[in-house]
Structures are given as structure tokens and as C-alpha cells.
Amino acid sequence: MSAETDPAVLELRNVTKTYRVKQGLFGKASLLTAVDDVSLSLPRGEVLGLVGESGCGKSTLAKILLGLEMPSSGQVLIDGTEIRAQDRLSLARRIQPIFQDPYSSLNPRKTIFDIISLPLRVHRVGGRAEWDRKVREILDIVGLPARVMETYPSQMSGGQRQRVAIARALIMKPEIVICDEPTSALDVSVQSQILNLLGDLRREFGLTYLFISHDLAVVEHLATRVAVMYLGRIVEEADVAGLFDEAMHPYTRALLKSVLTPEPGLGVPDTQLGVAYPNPIDPPSGCQFHPRCPMATEYCQTTKPVPIPTRTGHVECHLHDPNNPMKNEKVA
Ligand code: SF4
Fold first, then answer.
1. Residue 280, φ and ψ in degrees, nearest 5
2. Number of other residues whose CB lies within 10 A of the CB of residue 265
3. Residue 317: CB within 6 Å of ligand 1?
4. Which of 108, 124, 191, 294 could be stapled to 183 by a disulfide with Cβ–Cβ 3.0 to 4.6 Å?
């Protein structure tokens, strides 16, 4: 599927989210920009991998898409209709989350049947016999036997719990699934089983995923497009082959290198960038990546880069800007 032929099922237009935060008891309130002018378009059936270090704004973006936060400015459209115009229940029918931690996202006091059938009961779909039939059906689809219906999350392994979380997300047959680090709390051996399951379900049900991860190796497995986020901005976006073959932004290249660390998929990647991730309340001037960028010039310290179109997306870096007046300036 391609962006030219399929209309976007999910579209973000210049979405910005800011928060007022107070530093200390008597400190002045400062503005924190968690999501900064993000535009993305996701055609039906595609998987957009959203990558970046923790604190880059990925989770805030997920909350906006789920209707848990409203953008400060900009628009989020599902099938062309603004998210603000949709009530929470109808939004929940169309867009569902799968969270990172299947240990805390499932209520330990409820049976697996209660957990998976909850959306049916909330949306008043059918009665007990239909809930029973639908839960059995979805358990089979996610690879769990019907006998787990009367058990509790504590009686299951991490991988089984994540299958339950997937079943709960899919029981209302949503169009879009926001997968927020769905495998990072799991053993490495179980991660690929869950990724394969998500891939199979996408093909079978024509699902569209926003797949949030700090791990490019995981994203490469599933995504059709990749957006790289840094301090709330999408600094590079490309189709998956383009990004892995010829990453253009120095930050994307650092993330790619981090995948080659001895145990990829375990915890936050070591980007080898030396300088710590900046404080979003007091972001660096010019290109916000400049204090960590091995290619930074003096121009980068003062001038914000603009999105430059590339073969399959865009990149925000002066190195690729034909109008950069300091193109031959020495690295600072
Ligand atoms: Fe590095 Fe400059 Fe490009 Fe920013 S604009 S990523 S500092 S080279």
C-alpha cells in the first residue's frame, strides 16, 4: 500500500502539545513543549514506527491519539474527522492501545474473560452468550486456549498476558492500534512471538498500527514507515527500507548504531552521543540536537533547521538543506 493510493486513516496536522510546569515550590512556571508541530499521515493497513529516546514526546503523542490529552494546537483526524468531534466511546471503537507492561495493564482481580469482554460490556454489544462466543474467538486468534477464560493474570506468563492485552484491544475490531513499546517488558525469546502475532493480525484484519519503540531493530521487523522523534519534533521520516539503508539525520544514525550494542532490545539504547538528553524545559538553541551532534557547525547552534523533502519522506538537518549558507563551514 502506498500513501499515493490510499487515503490516510490517521492524520496529524501541525500538532503541538505544551504544558506549564513549575520548577520548585516558588519557581516561575515554564513552558514545556512535549510535541512540537508534528505532521504525520498514516494510510490504512500501514505500520508507522515512532522511535526516539524516553522523554522525546512519543507517549504524549500516543495519549493525544487515544483522546486522553488534547493538542494545544493543530488537528488530529481519523478517516478525515477531527478527533475533537468524536466522543470518547466512539473513538475507543476505532482506536485502541496495547501498552508496554502486561503486568500492570491487566486488572489482577478480574478473570481473563472479564478483562477481554469489558469493551463489549462498556459498548453494550450483545449479552452473555455473545460475549462468551466473541472471547473464545479472539482467544483462538491470539493463540490462547479457551480454558484461560476463568484464570487470572497472575496465573499467566508475560507473553500470555500480552496476548490477553492484544485480545482486549482487538475485540471491538478497531481500525487503528497504538502499540506503545508492546514487547519491551518481555523476555527476548517471547518478543519475536508477539511481533509475529501483531504482524499476522495486521494482515488478517487490515489493521493500521502506530508502533512506538525506542528500539529500531524492533521497528524494522514490523514497520512500513519510520518517524524519528527528538525533543518533540519528527527529525526524520522515511519508508523503512530508505531509513535503514540511508539514514540521513545524525540522530537517526546514532540510533541505528545503538541497535548494534551487544543486547539490542533490552532497555534504552546507548546512543553513544556522550552529552545527556537535553532538558525539554530549556531546549538548546538552533538545531536542538547540536550539543550531541558530531556534525554540528556554528550555524547549527543558532539556526533552526526546516524540514527538507527526501526521496521517501523528510529530514530536518542543515547538512541536507541546499539553501544552507554555511554548507562548507567547519564542524564546531
Ligand atoms: Fe547536526 Fe547541524 Fe544537522 Fe542539527 S542541523 S543534526 S546539529 S548537522
1. -65, -15
2. 18
3. yes
4. 191
pLDDT per residue as tens digits for the range 201-226: 999 999 999 999 887 878 888 999 99
Q: How far is the CA of 310 from the centre of ligand 1 (A)?
A: 16
In 10 A of CB 275, how many CB atoms? 10
pLDDT band at 277; cut points 50, 70, 90: confident
Length of the chain as a residue count = 332
For ligand 1, is residue 3 a contact (CB within 6 Å)? no
Query: What Cα–Cα distance (Å) separates residue 309 from each residue in 2, 11, 27, 94?
Result: 17, 18, 41, 31
Pocket test for ligand 1, best of 300, 321, 324, 330 (most atoms within 8 A of CB): 300
Domains of the chain, earliest start first:
8-283 (3.40.50.300)
Report DSSP state, residue 184.
T
C-alpha 44/C-alpha 118 separation (Å) is 26
Q: Are 167 and 98 in contact (CB under 8 A)?
A: no
Question: Angle CA(83)–CA(86)–CA(88) in degrees, nearest 5?
Answer: 100
Cα–Cα distance measured from residue 225 to residue 51, given in angstroms and rounded to the nearest whole number? 11
State pLDDT tens for residues 46-66.
999 999 888 889 989 999 998
Q: Which residues on adjacent β-strands are paired with residue 96?
A: 177
pLDDT per residue over 56-92, tens digit each?
899 899 999 988 899 999 999 998 889 888 888 888 8
Q: Is 235 helix (H, G, I), strand (E, B) or coil?
A: strand
Dihedral sign for Cα atoms in the order 261, 262, 264, 270: negative
Is the CB of residue 83 below 6 angstroms from any atom belonging to ligand 1? no
Question: Across-strand partners of 42?
Answer: 10
Question: What pLDDT sits at residue 112?
Answer: 97
